[in-house]
Amino acid sequence: MSRPRAVVVGGGVAGVTAALDLADRALDVILLEVRPQLGGAAYSFERDGLALDNGQHVFLRCCTAYRALLERIGGSGGVELQSRLEIPVLAPGRPPALLRRSRLPAPGQLGPALLRYGHLSLRERLGVGRAALALARVDPARDDETFGNWLTAHGQSPRAIANLWDLIALPTLNVPAAQASLGLGAFVFQEGLLRSAAAGDIGIHRAPLVEIIGAPALRALEQAGVDVRLRWRAQEVERDGDRFEVRGERDSLSADAVVLAVPHQRAAAIMPSELRAGAAAFDALGSSPIVNVHVVYDRRVLEHRFAAGVDSPVQYVFDRTPPEWNGQRQYVAVSLSGAELEAAMRSEELRARYLPALAELLPRARGAEVLRFAVTREHAATFRAVPGTRALRPSARTSVAGFALAGAWTATGWPATLEGAARSGHAAARVALEHTNGL
């Protein structure tokens, strides 16, 4: 008797996770990916001999599903996880501040650092502590107001929101607190900072994403027996009796179960016809862009692995220097979340805006020569995490038995992160397995 076949459409973190789970349960698995490499929204490409990531993706110690995936595929050697949360915060003309957790239990682990945080007044620092205690009691299901309105109602000044709360909210939600859903904002702070002292320790990708996710995932999938087909564009999925037919440009595949792990903008057009009417709501999730500015200097200008910027257009800046450069040059990447303004700007305009801004934050950059300047844009990087999106995010389980949805945009409870993508892959695989176990 032949094994049940599952087809996974999409080779990002969600699709890779689902495919590995299904292969582990002895299914015949085919993974389809339209691009020439795996990784989905987390990918690398080469420009003039320099490997560039499409974004500076980070994760936290509490991102257990994503970290487990990296271990499974052999990509964890390219990442670095802090032993203790530490965020250098830079501002023009002022000494750096350091948000470093103490050894106190949560939620007091950042208390000593907040009391010394020079980018807020003492009154604002004390107010942050009171608001954090109140935030711990907010139901993450709250989706009826913005996080920014809630913060303002709890005594947070515009400067406190910009110079502290948005340091966490903006990169994790990909919209500022002023626009973000209260529930998702509360979830981020509760999960990352308020429940466990170590949960918010930050992990960064030191190697290019293709070396951490793309190539290792391909090897792991092939070792697990998954048939990976790159440059294969799935156009639609239809039911064929008790099975499914996945149709592409030149070929079609038959399957007992299907996991659709593509962005929400593509999902509705591919789903079985009986689901497409309901999938029209996916468009209401919208999208939020991420822009990255890549700069190579002729000398070292950034002394930290990464740093945040306040009172500056620079949100976060990362040291992405290849180790083989031996300190002779430095490659830094500025990550801009919720970057609607920047996504519409020309490269020349971004250069004129961000090179002076970096020089204001990094004194060593003022006399340095810029050897390379490049911009990468993800216009639809994530869904817009604004009030009302909770009801729009679909479950992994659909009304068509054996057809499951995966992706960071589905109802994981997490914002659109690598962790949410990995968790969605596990959930979709469980749905597919329940169906095939009954065959």
Task: Looking at this protein, list some descriptive labels.
439 residues, alpha/beta, five-stranded parallel beta sheet, seven-stranded mixed beta sheet, 3 domains, Polyamine Oxidase, Chain A, domain 2, single chain
By helix and strand content, what is the structural category? Answer: alpha/beta
Q: In terms of per-residue confidence, which ranges show pLDDT below 50 for 5 or more consecutive residues?
A: none
Shape: globular
> What is the share of helical residues?
25-40%
Q: Distance N terminus to C terminus?
A: 11 Å
- Mean pLDDT over all positions: 96
Say which CATH homologous superfamily of the largest domain is assigned: FAD/NAD(P)-binding domain
* Largest sheet geometry: 7 strands, mixed
Q: How many β strands by DSSP? A: 20
Q: How big is the Rg?
A: 22 Å
- Count of discrete domains: 3
Q: State the helix count.
A: 13
Strand order of the largest sheet: 8-7-16-17-18-15-19
Which architecture name of the largest domain does CATH use? Answer: 3-Layer(bba) Sandwich
The CATH C-level class name of the largest domain:
Alpha Beta
In short:
This protein has about 450 residues and is an alpha/beta fold.
